[in-house]
């Protein structure tokens, strides 16, 4: 499954980093605690969070995540958008709560196995 597939199927908004929409997605990690994400997210996973500041891109790049999904209608800050476009890591958005988008993503990925 690719990031662009999830954008269409989960009705996600693409804020930036469009050049990374063809990246593969192997799973997802949910956390708002930066040190937790640093220690546990895996390469090619989506990171679901409500954090919007530039530091999320540092972790996303270091851990080579497929994309970042912002929940509850949050929007990335301009510095975050600039870094996303530079790194080619998409930042996506949804108005859904974390629990809802994680559940939908789980069902979608589980049914592809």
TrEMBL record:
It comes from the Bacteria. Residues 5-105 form the DRTGG domain. InterPro entries: DRTGG, Ser_kin/Pase_Hpr-like_N_sf. SUPFAM superfamilies: HprK N-terminal domain-like. It holds the Pfam family DRTGG. Homohexamer. This is DRTGG domain protein.
